[in-house]
Amino acid sequence: MRALARIEVLKQALVAALLSTVAAWPRLAGFTENPNPTWFLAGVLFWAAFCLWAAVFAWHARITERALLDWRLAARAWGMVTLVGVVGAVLFAFTTDPVWRLVRPRDFPMTTDAWVAQTLFYLGFEQLFAYLGPFALGFRLTGSVRVSIAGTAVFRLGLLALQLHTAVPTPSVAGVLLLIIARVAVTWVVLNVYLRGGLLAVGWLGLLWQLRHWFSF
């Protein structure tokens, strides 16, 4: 835990959490159904982002033996990430998106402003909350990359279960199985890209996946 309390780590986490909060602000401001004011939601998100970023900065180098922002990624690696992003976007559009649209229609923006807000939220906070933070914490607890990936996948399935519990209408059994398979597969892909390419590669992958929504309105 000493790595988590280092001044350098805390400073980096503070800056990153501020950036995450700024990126998430447009999406938070659009949560009109939430009774809490935007500044309150932003404060909660900032604290969560700070804790998660601290875990990422504290243990990233130990896990991957590379910088979090790796600018020296080879062109071939960028090409592979791009290919995975494009193929993944196409697969999402024709498999899980039709099912997920019934569960959470607000995750499918219908205007340019909504798409920008959702994309900034995804890149600034959702990837951190769903993948990077849980993976870093899992590695700190277990010391195993494989176990940490599996634990992150279980965390993702837990979030999916909560979302499906309140979903109206509830998707079919086949649809639920498809979503489960997709959550596990996406977790594995995102974290393997992260391990090999760092934050920039994960961000590029996420942007390519979000671009599929651009062509749906």
Q: What does the largest sheet look like?
A: none
Q: What gyration radius follows from the Cα positions, in whole Å?
A: 17 Å
Number of domains: 1
Quickly give the structural class: mainly alpha
pLDDT averaged residue by residue: 93
Structure write-up:
The chain is an all-alpha fold and 217 residues long. The protein has one domain (3-214). It has seven helices and no strands. The chain has helices at residues 7-29, 38-64, 75-94, 96-103, 112-142, 145-165, 173-214. Helix 1 (7-29) packs across helix 2 (38-64), helix 3 crosses helix 7 and helix 5 crosses helix 7. It starts with 6 loop residues before the first helix and ends with a helix. The model has no long low-confidence stretch (mean pLDDT 93).
Defining key terms:
globular
Sum this structure up briefly.
The chain is mainly alpha-helical.
